Amino acid sequence: MKIKEIHFKDTFPVRHSVLRQGKPIETCFFDGDDSDTTTHFGLFDQENCVGVASIYKNKNTIFNNNEQYQLRGMAVLEEFQKKGLGEQLVMHAENYIRLTQGELLWFNARVAAVPFYERLSYQKIGSSFDIPDVGPHFLMAKEF
Ligand SMILES: CC(C)(COP(=O)(O)OP(=O)(O)OC[C@H]1O[C@@H](n2cnc3c(N)ncnc32)[C@H](O)[C@@H]1OP(=O)(O)O)[C@@H](O)C(=O)NCCC(=O)NCCS
Predict the structure, then answer these.
(1) In angstroms, what is the span from residue 79 Cα to ligand 1's centroid?
(2) Does residue 113's CB lie within 6 angstroms of at least one atom of ligand 1?
(3) Would you give the DSSP letter of residue 99?
């Protein structure tokens, strides 16, 4: 398994299968995907991308930190889940943020993924809220 930076379009097959199943492929494009300050990571089994994660330089006014990043599109193909690969992807993104002097990583986590992030020392902030068509989420964050 190897993690490398990929083009945003190369995240689409995994995003579609895991996060947007049954929805049009266009729903796999997220605002800011093509920004210079966005970085996309792919986790590869041989030549096959089996996991993706993207980080966006995006400030959430709830936090005071200047250098904030948002994690989005965190997904591992179902048959590759629960093998520690998601953790590897988050740790890779964290290393990138540390190298670029980032101060905070935040994201909206699906309720089902909250224990995964808590294990990686992210904290829930506030109450759960609904994202239409996706379901209940918690804002989560960690400072570096
Ligand atoms: C959330 C997600 C990215 C996590 O990726 P993953 O590769 O399954 O993550 P890990 O394997 O590192 O950890 C997941 C769980 O497997 C467990 N695990 C890790 N290695 C394991 C192993 N070898 N054997 C058994 N369990 C293991 C971890 O303890 C963890 O448990 P927890 O979630 O109860 O804390 C992935 O499950 C996914 O794509 N889910 C669907 C989409 C989604 O919800 N994305 C997040 C949106 S916010």
Answers:
(1) 11
(2) yes
(3) H
> For residue 82, how far is the Cα from the chain centroid?
16
CATH topology for the 2-107 domain: Aminopeptidase (3.40.630)
Atom 4 in ligand 1: which residue has the minimum CA distance? 86
Side chain identity, residue 1: M
Which residue matches tokens 């947007």?
Answer: 20
pLDDT digits (tens, 9 = 90+) for 66-119: 999 999 999 999 999 999 999 999 999 999 999 999 999 999 999 999 999 999
> So where are the chain's domains?
2-107
Give me the residue label for tokens 């224990």.
115
Answer whether 74 contacts ligand 1 (Cβ < 6 A).
Answer: yes
131 in contact with ligand 1, CB cutoff 6 A? no
Residue ID of nearest Cα to ligand 1 atom 28: 82
Of 41, 98, 45, the closest CA to residue 73 belongs to 41
Any atom of ligand 1 within 6 Å of the Cβ of 115: yes
- Token pair recorded at residue 98: 């540390």
pLDDT digits (tens, 9 = 90+) for 125-138: 999 999 988 899 99
Nearest 10 degrees: CA dihedral of 137, 54, 52, 130? 10
